[in-house]
Structures are given as C-alpha cells and as structure tokens.
C-alpha cells in the first residue's frame, strides 16, 4: 500500500505542471518573494472586501503612479546634483515588449475553449443523469456548497483560497507519503461505495454498459 500511494501523482499538487515562476512562489523557494506575493494578494483581497472594485483599482493605480513619479523626480535630482546622465530610470521597463502575439492569443483562446467545452460536456452529463451515481455525488457536493455559501461570501472564499494556495502545496510536499496514503484510502472507500451503489441500482450504470 505504501509503495502504491507514493506512486500516486495528484495533478493539483504536482509542481512539474506549473510555470516555474508560479511553482517558485507557492512552494516558497524564495521566502521573501513568496511572503511578498502572499501579503500583497491578501492586502488587495481585504481591500476589495471593504471597498468597491473601482475604488481599489483607483487607489492602487494612484499609489503606483505617485511612487513612480516620486522615484523619477528623485533620480532626476540625483543626476543633476551628481552631474551624471544615466537616462530614464525606467528605461529597462520601457524597452520590454509587453505586446501579446497573435500566436499566443490564439493558443490561449484554444486552451480556454477546450476547457470550456470539457466543462460544458461534464455539466451536461451530470445534470442529465448519464450516470446516476456521479449525479448523486454532484448533488451532495452542491448541497454542501449551500452550507458553505451560508457561512462565507465570495470574497471570503477567495481569501481562504489564496491562503490555501500558499500553504497546502508546501504542506503536501513536506508530508507527501502520509497524505498520499490517506487520499488513496479515501479514494478506495469512495470507489467501493460507488461500485456497490451501481450494482444495486441499474440506472447507475452508464449507457454503454446497458447496450452490451
């Protein structure tokens, strides 16, 4: 059981599937950068919870613009005093290419379309009860979400998800063997119960099984 559970590859905790920059942040490869990203995200989300989106965007942009203007003026005064000509302090940023290529846009659109089509197909399958057991499990999930919605609003859930993004992957990495073993045990129990329900309820079998 131990060797099998260690071989399980749970995609949502697999760092190899992530962009290197994202993997570095959520796995705390650099504590300073990860802490700054976590703190900045929390500050933004708390601000959104207290103020309107327009106010948060306006104040954030005004703060960034003020800092940029102050830094530009400071560098210009420093260059005048030292009689140097270092050029624009943000020259390296102004020279960066921020345009999105047509190929990149098409790639993102194709990926988004593929995910959307997969989600629509899965929702159709669940709501039209192609498999009774899967639809019942989906119903239980929706029922649980009604209690989650009664306790938390949307922005609170996003804040909790942001904190989980910076804590669960690292916790999993540090306790991979134990977590994999428990997840495999839970998965086997769920599959066992699902198999019993499908055997007891003919409607739980998929359409292709009925045709055989």
UniProtKB/TrEMBL annotation:
Q: Which residues form the Reticulon domain?
A: 22-212
Alphabetically ordered keywords of this record:
Endoplasmic reticulum, Membrane, Transmembrane, Transmembrane helix
Any one GO CC term of the record = endoplasmic reticulum membrane
Q: Does the keyword Transmembrane helix apply?
A: yes
Where found?
Endoplasmic reticulum membrane
UniProt main location, coarse: endoplasmic reticulum
The record describes its membrane topology as:
Multi-pass membrane protein
Q: Which residues cross the membrane?
A: 36-59, 140-166
The entry's protein name is Reticulon-like protein
Species in which this protein is naturally found: Bicyclus anynana (Squinting bush brown butterfly)
The gene is LOC112043675
């Amino acid at each position: 059981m131990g060797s099998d559970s260690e071989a399980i590859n749970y995609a949502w905790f697999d760092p190899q599937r992530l962009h290197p920059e994202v993997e570095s942040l959520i796995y705390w490869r650099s504590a300073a950068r990860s802490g700054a990203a976590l703190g900045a995200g929390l500050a933004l989300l708390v601000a959104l919870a207290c103020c309107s989106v327009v106010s948060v965007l306006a104040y954030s942009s005004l703060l960034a613009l003020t800092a940029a203007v102050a830094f530009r003026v400071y560098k210009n005064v420093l260059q005048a005093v030292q009689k140097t000509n270092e050029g624009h302090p943000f020259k390296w940023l102004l020279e960066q290419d921020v345009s999105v290529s047509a190929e990149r846009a098409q790639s993102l659109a194709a990926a988004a379309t593929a995910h959307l089509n997969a989600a629509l197909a899965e929702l159709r399958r669940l709501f039209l009860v192609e498999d009774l057991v899967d639809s019942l499990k989906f119903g239980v999930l929706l029922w649980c979400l009604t209690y989650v919605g009664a306790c938390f609003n949307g922005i609170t859930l996003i804040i909790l998800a942001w904190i989980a993004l910076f804590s669960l992957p690292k916790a999993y990495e540090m306790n991979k063997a134990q977590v994999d073993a428990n997840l495999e045990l839970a998965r086997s129990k769920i599959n066992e119960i699902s198999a019993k329900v499908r055997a007891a309820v003919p409607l739980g079998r998929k359409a292709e099984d009925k045709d055989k």
